[in-house]
Amino acid sequence: MKQSMRFFGWISGSVIFIVVLFTALTLQTLQSSLRNIQTIERGQTAWVVSRIEFEYIRLNRAIPEFMLGLAKADDVRQRFDILWSRVNVVTTGATAARLAELNLDTSAVTRLRNILLETNAAVETLEDGDLQSAIALRDASAVLNSDIRELTLNVRKASSDQALRTRQSLVRISLLANLMALLTGLTLIITIFLIAMDSRHNRKISEGNMLLLIASNASTEAKTQFISVVNHELRTPLTSISGALSLIRGGAAGEINQKVSQLLEIASRNCDTLTALIGDLLEIDKAQAGKLALTMSVTNVTELVCNSIVANLAYAEKHGIRLVQLPNEQDCYAQVDGVRIMQVIANLLSNAIKFSEAGSEVQVSIHSEVDRLFIVVRDEGIGIPEASLDTIFERFHQVDGKTDRKVGGTGLGLSIARGIVESHGGSLTVSSELGSGSSFKVQLVKAYPALSDN
């Protein structure tokens, strides 16, 4: 559920980003189009061109009036100068650029400009009553009458078409912007809904975690009570039973026959097993709670390994196993509780012996790397299935879970061993190949003999 909400939240966020980006681009395009319309309207290209036609007509009207004596030479020059300025506006600057955008034939304006250049000198020297010069001017300008008219009409039509296209584009862009705004709104609504759902889900998880915490505390309290019961209500009776059995086997109650002796031996052995189990339960509880009593000192770990091997020689010989300590170049030291580390090594050795075939070998080696010290116990036994490598250090875990297991044990030894090693700031790991044996590695923090005086 939570992963699904995260996925939809990611999708929603991506959609919002895309929509906002696209909306921004759309608004930028809309703004650009508005600027184009404003430019067209401000420039009024068609109006500027129509002014050329208007001034051109007024010049052609002023020349006949001059010939009839109704206008003076200055009137003709004034109309000529105004037309010249209009032509300059169209052929240069922004108006010329906008005419080029309309892709129209403006050669008529060019020809008109050339005619004005050719007749400029004659206009400047025109005198009142100079009919010959007036006739020449009339004939020169009259040639472009239809061309100027056609250009004006074409510019008006092209400008109108361009404005229409721009406005249609604006309508489409506006619709698209509205659609993007709608999508943004819907996406925001979905996002808010998902956030609310996620918040609700988180609240449920928090409530569930609180219930689990309460249940965990209750479980811890129950476990503590159970350990207390085990320690006080079981250990004391078992100690009494074990003592009584020892006395009976020693003949304190009189002579016993062989059959009874065998039964007493079984009872005594099972009593010892129960006592060891209770001890293991107490040990693992202390290890997990971080309450193991440790007496730390700089200790020669090489000697600890040697002593552990000596202590387990009889057990190894009973099973036909050879214990071998591989030589190392120099003694290795660590800040440890020697008794607890010997307990770990003894557990690893006893497991290696139990799960090895008679005639095989169990090797113990020590080496150091930089600030770390390693103790490795390697056997040639049955090995550990890959599926059990992650659970072998759990409480009551047995590699061979069948009821007819060939080896005994409570399944607490490795869990206790790991707890002891981790209490020392180290680690206990395993590597194994089924049918080829296992290798347990204890990692400890290296120390130096010089610290032993502190």
Structure, explained:
- This protein has 454 residues and is of the alpha+beta class.
- The chain has two domains: 2-190, Four Helix Bundle (Hemerythrin (Met), subunit A) (Up-down Bundle); 297-453, Heat Shock Protein 90.
- Helix content is 67%, strand content 10%.
- The chain has eleven helices and seven strands.
- It has helices spanning 2-43, 45-67, 73-91, 93-101, 107-124, 131-142, 145-249, 258-289, 301-318, 338-354, 413-423, and strands at residues 297-300, 322-325, 333-336, 361-369, 372-378, 427-433, 437-447.
- Strands 1, 2, 3, 4, 5, 6 and 7 form a seven-stranded mixed β-sheet that branches.
- A hairpin with a 3-residue loop joins β6 and β7.
- It is rod-shaped.
- The two termini are 57 Å apart.
- Residues 401-405 have low confidence and may be disordered.
- The chain crosses the membrane at residues 7-27, 175-196.
- Pfam families: HATPase_c (PF02518), HisKA (PF00512).
- Residues 229-448 form the Histidine kinase domain.
- InterPro entries: HATPase_C_sf (IPR036890), HATPase_dom (IPR003594), His_kinase_dom (IPR005467), HisK_dim/P_dom (IPR003661), HisK_dim/P_sf (IPR036097), Sensor_HK_Regulatory (IPR050736), Sig_transdc_His_kin-like_C (IPR004358).
- GO terms for molecular function: ATP binding; phosphorelay sensor kinase activity.
